[in-house]
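Quick log. Single chain, no ligands specified.
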Amino acid sequence: MDGVALSLEYQSQELCRALTRGTGRHGDDITDHVRESRMGREVVDSTFDSSVPDFVFVRGEVCITKEDLDEVKESVERSYSNPRNAAADALNHKNLSEGKGKRLRFIAYESQCSRARNS
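-> predicted structure:
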C-alpha cells in the first residue's frame, strides 16, 4: 500500500485535527477538507460503537486504487504517474466529496484512545 500518511484526532466524537506528514517535521493541516468528507469517521464509528472514548487518535493511509486511478486519469487533464500522487493531489482540493476525492480510501493501521480525567 502506497498512500499519503494521515493522522486524525477526535475529541468528544468530533474531528479536531487532520494532519498529513507534510515535510516530515511539519504536517499539512487539512482538517476542514477531511471534516467535510467524513473520511476516517467510519473507523471511529465501527470501532467504538456506543461507548466512544473522549480522545481518539487514528493513523492511516489515504489511498486510491489503480482501477480508480484509471478512471480519474480519464476525467481530468492532469496525468498521474502513480496512485499516491493522485491521492496527494486530491487531498489538497477543498471538496473531497466530489471529483477525485470521491475515489479516496482511508485505511487505518493504528488507533489510540483515552478517557478524560475527572478533576
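Residues 12 and 110 are 19 Å apart (CA to CA).
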